[in-house]
Automatic annotation (TrEMBL):
<dbReference type="InterPro" id="IPR008927">
    <property type="entry name" value="6-PGluconate_DH-like_C_sf"/>
</dbReference>
<dbReference type="Pfam" id="PF03446">
    <property type="entry name" value="NAD_binding_2"/>
</dbReference>
<dbReference type="InterPro" id="IPR006115">
    <property type="entry name" value="6PGDH_NADP-bd"/>
</dbReference>
<dbReference type="InterPro" id="IPR036291">
    <property type="entry name" value="NAD(P)-bd_dom_sf"/>
</dbReference>
<feature type="domain" description="6-phosphogluconate dehydrogenase C-terminal">
    <location>
        <begin position="162"/>
        <end position="295"/>
    </location>
</feature>
<dbReference type="GO" id="GO:0016491">
    <property type="term" value="F:oxidoreductase activity"/>
</dbReference>
<keyword id="KW-0311">Gluconate utilization</keyword>
<comment type="similarity">
    <text>Belongs to the 6-phosphogluconate dehydrogenase family.</text>
</comment>
<dbReference type="Pfam" id="PF00393">
    <property type="entry name" value="6PGD"/>
</dbReference>
<dbReference type="InterPro" id="IPR013328">
    <property type="entry name" value="6PGD_dom2"/>
</dbReference>
<keyword id="KW-0560">Oxidoreductase</keyword>
<dbReference type="InterPro" id="IPR006114">
    <property type="entry name" value="6PGDH_C"/>
</dbReference>
<dbReference type="InterPro" id="IPR006183">
    <property type="entry name" value="Pgluconate_DH"/>
</dbReference>
<dbReference type="InterPro" id="IPR004849">
    <property type="entry name" value="6DGDH_YqeC"/>
</dbReference>
<protein>
    <submittedName>
        <fullName>Phosphogluconate dehydrogenase (NAD(+)-dependent, decarboxylating)</fullName>
        <ecNumber>1.1.1.343</ecNumber>
    </submittedName>
</protein>
Length: 304
């Protein structure tokens, strides 16, 4: 098939390559002219065949960049054409974008994409939402992008189904990463275990906690055993927050995923104000020791 691809960063650029390797024609546009095949969205649309539905796949940052791109495509495309949002948009944005495009008879598919920089080689896990007719227009590209065995699902016919599924996927990812990280910290904290990387490596075979995330953690600690080169600061992409918000909206208990999200917030504090308050209260009600700021010569006495 012939398809337009907007956004040629790490994910989008590799997706273009994988599609071309599968024999598809891809016209790519990016604000970076060194990456782009054409110099504008209008040129991209013009380059697609006029005798069939024009399909444009958008891979730009979620929020306003995606909304602005889709609004521009709404003016350039026509009835029967299709826009695919393959970024990390919030599912509520999908509903608004589908309504906008639908007013001009333009179809819409939202597609959550997972696979990162490894997707070019291994394929991308795809979770997509949209009508059967709209999905059929982009099916050849979906088949080319997904892994050879499974890894793709039509999550639902309503706009947002794909990104909602990907949102929950990322929430689970938060929790799994946090569990591995806490286990690693405990093993590092004791003198009893002498080879922490080897312990994690042993878990990769024959255990119930083996996973690709575990493989990636093993690779990281093999390069930097104590992770000394890294700062203990973890961003959140937004999807963890959206998952917790959706849990609240639907009265679904989500203890572990919520805790893993808040742990990322804690990682951004060099000296947690909340823990200062906890220490102060423990001292007030029980006389428990508090740690004061260290003097120039070293740490203050915990009994000071």
């Amino acid at each position: 098939m012939e398809i337009g691809l907007v956004g040629l960063g790490k994910m989008g650029g590799n997706m273009r390559t994988r599609l071309r390797n599968a024999g598809h024609t891809v016209v790519g546009y990016d604000r970076n002219p060194d990456l782009a095949d054409v110099d504008s969205l209008a040129a991209l649309v013009e380059a697609l065949p006029a005798d069939g539905p024009k399909v444009v796949w958008v891979m730009v940052p979620a929020g306003e960049p995606t909304r602005a791109t889709i609004a521009e495509l709404n003016d350039l495309l026509g009835e029967g054409d299709l826009v695919v949002d393959g970024g990390n948009s919030k599912y509520t944005d999908d509903q608004a974008n589908a309504e906008l495009l639908g007013q001009r008879g333009i179809g819409f598919v939202d597609c959550g994409v997972s696979g990162g920089v490894w997707g070019l080689q291994n394929g991308y896990a795809l979770m997509y939402g949209g009508s059967d007719d709209d999905v059929a227009k982009v099916q050849p590209a979906l088949d080319a992008l997904k892994p050879d065995d499974g890894g793709a699902v039509h999550a639902g016919s309503k706009p947002g189904a794909g990104h909602f599924a990907k949102m929950v996927h990322n929430g689970i990812e938060y929790a799994m990463m946090q569990a591995y990280a806490e286990g690693w910290e405990l093993l590092e904290a004791v003198d009893l275990v002498e080879n922490v990387p080897a312990v994690f490596d042993s878990w990769r075979t024959g255990t119930v906690i083996r996973s690709w995330l575990l493989d990636l953690l093993v690779a990281a600690v093999e390069e930097d055993e104590h992770l000394d080169k890294l700062r203990g600061y973890a961003d959140d992409s937004g999807e963890g927050r959206w998952t917790v918000e959706a849990a609240i909206d639907n009265a679904v208990p989500m203890h572990v995923i919520a805790a893993s999200l808040f742990a990322r917030f804690s990682s951004r504090q060099d000296d947690s104000p909340a823990m200062k308050a906890v220490a102060a209260m423990r001292n007030q009600f029980g006389g428990h020791a508090v740690h004061t700021a260290p003097p120039a010569g070293g740490d203050a006495s915990p009994d000071a």
